[in-house]
Design brief:
By secondary structure, this protein is mostly helical. It has helices at 6-22, 29-43, 53-79. The protein has one domain (15-79).
Length: 83
């Protein structure tokens, strides 16, 4: 297993903040921070859960990419805007 550093988790957190801003600020930074914290607390409850951290990060990155594509597609179809 490769090591995961706090910078990678912070990057995912910042990406979610960017997503909220792109969506017109529908969610506040505090809302997103709480959701990220709740998600990680749910997924990482025991030390053994850390063995699956790479899989967890991969899943979050995949979800993030999908959401970015959906936002771009929605913006393009609604406003003719390319994000």
């Amino acid at each position: 297993m490769t090591s995961t550093n706090p910078h990678q988790l912070r990057h995912l957190h910042l990406s979610r903040n960017t997503m909220a801003a792109t969506m017109g600020g529908a969610a506040t930074v505090d809302d997103i921070s709480t959701k990220v914290e709740d998600y990680l607390n749910d997924k990482l409850q025991t030390p053994a859960d850390l063995d699956g951290i790479e899989s967890l990060l991969s899943s979050v990155k995949d979800q993030h990419s999908l959401l970015q594509r959906q936002v771009r597609n929605l913006g393009s179809s609604l406003h003719g805007i390319n994000y």
